[in-house]
Amino acid sequence: MAKTIAVMLRKGGSGKTTTAVNLAAALRQMGKRVLLVDLDPQANATIAVGIDPTLLEKHISSLLTDVDITTQDIIVTTDFALDVLPAHPDLALAEAGMNATQVGTVKQILQDLQSRYDYIIIDTPPSEGYLTISSLVAADEVIIPLQAHFLAMQGLQQALNTVAKVQKGLNPNLKIIGILPTMVNPRTNIARIVLKEVGERYNDLLLPYSIDYSIRHAEASLAGLPIVLYDPEHSGSKNYKKLARKVL
After folding, report:
1. CATH number at residue 193
2. CA 203 to chain centre
3. Per residue in 69-118, pLDDT tens?
4. Residues 166 and 137 sit within 8 Å (Cβ to Cβ)
5. pTM of the predicted model, to two decimals?
6. Phi, then psi, of 15 in degrees rounded to 5
7. What average pLDDT does the structure give for the chain?
8. How far is it, in rounded angstroms, from Cα 16 to Cα 9?
9. Which end of the chain is less congested by CB atoms within 10 angstroms, N or C?
10. Could you give the CA distance from residue 33 to residue 2 in angstroms, rounded to a whole number?
11. Structural domain range at position 28
């Protein structure tokens, strides 16, 4: 049975997609069978692994709107052997048509894939819509990336509240792996203050490594590669590998 991990935070630009992509790629490098699921209508995770969503005839939106499409029909394998359920901008329309009775949709989609993979990594939308809740219902564990900025603190509390709500009813077995500081500029007072505050409030959840702000992450995405492959010696690569080892 695969372990399913959701990467979630309501705030966009927090390193959520970068974390999902690099965790999936790092686990794949370690010899695990991994599926990356892109549930963000912006399709950034799909693009970041070198797949152009506009060229896809079938994608995850197809699963939500066409009963004749199977999960196997839309899996794409990247050049670096990572399997992906790709997203498409149409996913926003599919989510708009969802209702509260469909919060088990993602779990149902992934059910038939459990024996094929060791890990399923879900990149969730930067919102608290049905796709995000459905992802948490399907997940065993969740990682919360935190941009080292004051505005991100509100998003962190919202994410923790959302997880707590799901734990109380829809998925009582959901666990938090930890809070991962991202886009950290260690030379700024803001980053130091935010990390200090998070450490004081959530010491049991704050992971002992962080992802520094670097243009190399953007360069890697532009190249359609996770940074763990694009620049293996980069500090971000090394810390994403530490995260993968923690997951293992």
Report:
1. 3.40.50.300
2. 22
3. 888 889 999 999 999 999 988 877 776 666 676 888 889 989 889 999 99
4. yes
5. 0.94
6. 85, 15
7. 89
8. 7
9. N
10. 9
11. 3-247
Q: Per the structure block, which two tokens stand in for 148?
A: 């080292």
Q: Phi/psi at 56 (nearest 5 deg)?
A: -85, 130
Q: Please give the structure tokens belonging to residue 45.
A: 């995770």
Is residue 5 within 8 Å of residue 178, measured between CB atoms?
A: no
Structure tokens at 147: 């941009």
Query: 19: which 2 tokens?
Result: 């974390």
Structural tokens at position 87: 């997203």
The CA–CA distances, whole Å, from 167 to 163, 174, 176, 195, 201 equal 6, 6, 10, 26, 20
Rounded distance between C-alpha atoms, residue 51 and residue 78, angstroms: 8
Contact 53, 103 (CB under 8 A): no
**How many domains is the chain built from?**
1
Helix (H/G/I), strand (E/B), else coil: 214: coil
Q: How far is CA 238 from CA 49, 98, 179, 212, in A?
A: 19, 39, 17, 11
Helix/strand/coil for 201: helix
Q: Which two tokens stand for residue 204?
A: 């049991």
